[in-house]
Write a structure and sequence with these properties.
The protein has one domain: Rossmann fold (3-Layer(aba) Sandwich), CATH 3.40.50.150. Helix content is about 25%, strand content about 25%. It starts with 10 loop residues before the first strand and ends with a strand. With about 210 residues, the protein is α/β, with parallel strands linked by helices. The chain is globular, with a radius of gyration of 17 Å. A hairpin with a 2-residue loop joins β1 and β2. The chain is built from 5 helices and 10 strands, in the order βββααβαββαββαββ. A 6-stranded mixed beta sheet has the order 5-4-6-7-10-9, with helices on both faces. A 4-stranded antiparallel beta sheet has the order 1-2-3-8, with no helix packed on it.
């Protein structure tokens, strides 16, 4: 199979519970074979099992690295987008409570296509990029939605060779279909024309 991100050929990386994962030596991404993708209905039902409560302090703390970074770098006069906002858009709620102007888009819970026909100073993408069936299209879209000097704030768990993939808990969610390393993030930066990528344990920032 070809890599869903860069289009290069891949090699089989692991087969776990009859689910096949492939590795791309070009962008260093690991992808689930499309044969094992959930249907739209099953994917939505999986998301509906998430216990996401916008008033839950643990949930707010989990997204706080993105919220804090936005508050540090942008103000109420800037326009933002919560991309993949989910059934309980906690980032949006927290920022709106501070007076920020932020729009939402989610293919299952808020398919607001109008939000994809404007540009933004910043975009929040929290625990979303590992769900991309077509990351090549999604990152192209995200780059196009950012204004010049804008920022894309992402949160996902990165894979590296110190992790035993077969026992890695993060791959067990059936909706997690693409996994990134630091090399993958740098490939995204270079290929899509971001000026830089800043990678920390809790946050990934792409600058346009």
């Amino acid at each position: 199979m070809d890599c869903a991100l860069c289009g290069s050929g891949t090699t089989e990386f692991s087969v776990i519970k009859k689910r096949a994962y492939h590795h791309c030596s070009n962008c260093d991404g690991i992808s689930l074979h499309p044969t094992y993708f959930l249907s739209n209905d099953k994917e939505r039902k999986r998301y509906e099992t998430h216990n996401n409560d916008i008033t839950d302090l643990g949930y707010q703390n989990f997204v706080s690295p993105i919220v804090n970074a936005i508050v540090k770098n942008y103000g109420e006069n800037h326009q933002g987008l919560d991309f993949g906002s989910g059934s309980a858009p906690v980032i949006t709620t927290m920022l709106r409570n501070l007076g920020y102007v932020i729009h939402t888009y989610d293919p299952f819970f808020d398919p607001n296509s109008k939000a994809l026909h404007r540009t933004y100073d910043y975009i929040a993408c929290c625990e979303v990029m590992e769900h991309f069936y077509h990351p090549n299209k999604e990152f192209k879209l995200l780059h196009s939605l950012l204004r010049e000097n804008g920022s894309l704030y992402c949160k996902t768990y990165l894979y590296d060779t110190s992790i035993d993939f077969n026992s890695w808990w993060y791959k067990n969610d059936a909706t997690h279909v693409f996994f990134y390393s630091k090399n993958t993030l740098n490939w995204i930066k270079d290929h899509y024309g971001f000026s830089e990528v800043i990678i920390s344990k809790k946050l990934i920032i792409f600058r346009k």
